[in-house]
Amino acid sequence: MIWLRRRNIVVALLSLLIIWVNTQWMNPSLPVPKPGVPGINTVYADSAMSSRSAGSAACLSCHRAICDSLSLTAHYLSSSPASAASIKGSFRAGRNHIVYNEHMEVVLEKKGKKFLQSAWFNGSVYESEAFDIVIGSGRKGQSYLYWDSNRLFQLPVSYYTPADSWCNSPGYPTNLIYFNKQVPGECMECHATSARVLSLDNGATLFDKNSIVYGIDCERCHGPGAAHLAWHTAHPGEKEGRDIIHWRQLGRQQRLDACALCHSGFRKEILPSFSFRVGDTLAQFSTPNYSPDSTATLDVHGNQYGLLTTSKCFSSSSMDCSSCHNVHVDEFNRAGLFSRRCMNCHDQPGQAAQMGAPARQSGCTFAPVKELKLENNCIDCHMPALPSQKILLQLSGGATPLHDMIRTHHIGIYPDISAKYISAAKAAGPRSGR
Ligand code: HEC
Ligand code: HEC
Ligand code: HEC
Ligand code: HEC
Ligand code: HEC
Ligand code: HEC
Ligand code: HEC
Q: Given this model, what pLDDT does residue 33 score?
């Protein structure tokens, strides 16, 4: 089988080149290596939060409501070990393969306790790897990673929720199947709570397999909690939270930076993954991979921060992400709830002033339509879901690729989309609740 492997490597080298150009993958400049474990030059010990961490199970006894609701959010479910429960795609015959062309397909199968992706070329298997880690809550989709000793690689097939179907992994070509895309540290930095990141001479990222804390958990946003836990256990009467990150005491840019770490697209790293802490200045750790002047061409994917900063709402107030989002709760798809948050500024002068907005905000100037209750849904007209130009998904069978739809954070006026929304509302009739 060695010859088959070798051919795969040649193919992979070629396609890595393609993917490099395609994704403009960042080129992290790592610090000067220090001697350490043989073969490993740098150990980012703090990336695992080590002994200062208590683990989120320890927060339950005093913060039950937040723990319960967080466990249902996309953040909390954003990564997990692979299992029948965490993998959303189907392994049933007929639905368990993706065909690239008449020579090539990937078959998704369960063998014993393992779930596998097996690449077939002209009737024989040439590579087969296990699903080890699931990335993505499955709100929109999932990608899968496998371990090769301490290195993580991305598998060729992903899952796309709107079509309930396996698909070619985003950014992968459709005429090659490869397993050799190594996952950079940032992938885990954005999708997990902590991981011990190690680095080799050539800058390749290695992980300590046993150190990964899956999902985006309390301590990702509030910092390690062991000292907080110890203090409050010893002082049950204490009403003020100690030794923990208080978001409400941070400045606006600090609060924005702490979300922008993961919500301003892929960034160019100055310091290694997992070194940023909530409260730090993000620009000292990494820089955005886009020019702020070219916001017209910004992709909607994953860059909520960049887009929000181009909105009038943002520049004329002291708004931050928490003006609209309560990250402890799964609020996906609740247009009415979000619209009330718009009204906090656009309808209620008192609250608007608290958020740094001018005392009187005009409401919607759009001519009233009798079929429509504007206040039920401000967002489909002013923050519409738009097709991502970067994330295109190829489903099995060579159908036309689909664009991932993402809610833009450029809050603005979109006359054509508004007109379409109105005709849909008229067609649905006055009782549709729109
Ligand atoms: C023994 C009880 C106890 C445990 C366990 C505990 N906390 Fe707290 N925590 C408190 C008390 C008391 C406060 C202050 C009152 C409040 O804000 O709820 C607090 C406040 C907080 C705050 C609010 C800070 C602010 O902005 O006001 C955060 C964040 C927090 N805890 C996070 C955590 C995390 C994360 C864990 C688990 C690692 C944890 N707590 C475990 C008792 C506890
Ligand atoms: C460590 C990286 C990270 C940080 C920090 C982070 N996010 Fe996220 N966020 C993600 C990832 C990854 C997803 C996608 C999760 C998924 O579906 O798998 C996500 C999803 C979301 C979603 C969509 C999920 C939904 O329920 O609609 C919202 C909204 C969101 N984040 C807001 C925020 C806000 C606001 C902050 C700052 C308070 C923040 N995030 C901080 C990584 C992060
Ligand atoms: C994605 C980031 C994120 C995660 C994960 C997260 N928090 Fe928070 N937390 C925040 C933000 C942002 C605020 C401040 C919200 C505001 O300004 O109103 C906050 C505020 C708090 C507060 C004080 C205000 C309140 O709502 O009571 C407590 C207590 C708290 N968090 C506990 C927790 C616990 C416990 C967990 C884990 C179960 C957790 N948080 C997970 C971002 C996060
Ligand atoms: C800079 C932070 C960042 C990095 C790096 C990153 N992601 Fe994400 N990812 C996000 C955010 C934020 C979202 C959700 C919001 C969005 O799409 O705008 C997301 C969404 C996803 C989703 C869809 C989840 C769902 O169901 O909503 C998948 C799958 C995913 N990422 C896989 C990966 C993989 C695999 C890697 C590494 C090769 C990676 N991501 C690297 C931030 C990141
Ligand atoms: C923190 C307060 C605040 C919140 C929350 C807020 N806005 Fe605004 N918005 C403003 C301010 C201030 C302006 C600028 C008004 C002006 O210049 O006259 C504005 C302007 C606008 C404009 C005009 C944009 C343009 O380019 O002309 C629209 C449309 C708008 N907001 C819609 C919304 C929607 C929809 C939401 C909810 C998703 C929302 N706003 C939430 C404060 C806010
Ligand atoms: C003016 C209100 C507003 C502000 C401010 C805001 N958002 Fe959102 N955000 C929304 C709405 C509305 C949605 C759509 C929710 C839905 O469809 O369920 C959304 C959706 C999202 C999503 C999911 C996008 C998708 O389509 O998958 C992410 C991620 C997100 N927001 C992150 C952020 C971050 C990070 C910030 C701060 C930089 C932020 N938001 C600030 C209103 C806001
Ligand atoms: C059917 C689509 C639609 C809905 C629903 C809608 N708007 Fe608008 N809105 C528009 C359009 C189109 C304009 C531009 C109208 C014009 O040309 O004056 C506008 C204008 C605005 C403006 C700009 C006013 C100015 O001074 O320029 C604000 C603010 C605004 N809307 C807020 C909201 C809020 C808040 C909601 C929810 C309560 C909402 N809109 C619901 C389509 C809509």
A: 32
Distance CA 104, CA 396 (A): 11
- Section 126-151 average pLDDT: 94
DSSP run (H or E) holding 252: helix 252-263
What is the CB neighbour count within 10 angstroms for residue 205?
24
Confidence of residue 17 (pLDDT cuts 50, 70, 90): very low
**pLDDT grade for 399, boundaries at 50, 70 and 90:** low
pTM of the model: 0.91
pLDDT band for 85, please (50, 70, 90 cuts).
very high
Distance CA(65)–CA(261), nearest Å, equals 26
Give the CA radius of gyration of the chain. 24
State if residue 266 touches ligand 4 by the CB under 6 angstroms criterion.
Answer: yes
CB 122 within 8 A of CB 103: yes
Burial class (CB in 10 A: 0-12, 13-18, 19+), 300: buried
Q: Cα angle vertex 290, ends 289, 295, to 5°?
A: 155
Biggest CA pair distance of the chain = 73
In angstroms, the CA 419 to CA 425 distance is: 10
DSSP letter, residue 295? G
Tokens of 339: 């619209």
pLDDT for residue 426 is more than 80? yes
- Pocket of ligand 1, beta carbon within 6 A: 54, 58-59, 61-63, 218-219, 222, 225, 228-229, 232-233, 238-241, 244, 246-248
Establish whether residue 166 lines the binding site of ligand 6, counting it when its CB lies within 6 angstroms of any ligand atom: no
